[in-house]
Design a protein that fits this description.
single chain; 102 residues; mainly alpha
Length: 102
């Protein structure tokens, strides 16, 4: 039966490199997830505002076509549901990371 020497075990447990610090980023990426998510929220907000304006115009009689009102409302609804699903997935991912043992 072969016995592994203590020196071999010490070599396996020693650190590989002396510099273990993470690299620091001096510039934030403008195309990152946060900027994309902000753009999605702004677009959703503009669709909500547009749908509200079209509904007001319909009530005032300026827009005669009910289809236009319904399409604008559904566009806003779909965009809002997408933002909510992204938020839910982000929260689920965060909670899963917090449950991981260190």
């Amino acid at each position: 039966m072969a016995v592994v020497g203590i020196e071999t075990i010490k070599a396996l447990s020693s650190p590989i490199g002396t510099n273990t610090a993470l690299p620091k980023s001096s510039k934030v990426d403008d195309n990152g997830f946060s900027s994309i998510f902000k753009d999605i929220i702004k677009e959703t907000n503009s669709l909500q505002i547009e749908a509200n304006e079209i509904q007001e115009k319909f009530l005032l009689g300026e827009v005669k076509d009910l289809h236009t009102v319904m399409i604008a409302a559904e566009k806003a609804s779909v965009a809002f549901n997408l933002v909510m699903e992204i938020r839910n997935k982000l929260l689920e991912s965060y909670q899963e990371l917090m449950r991981m043992p260190i």
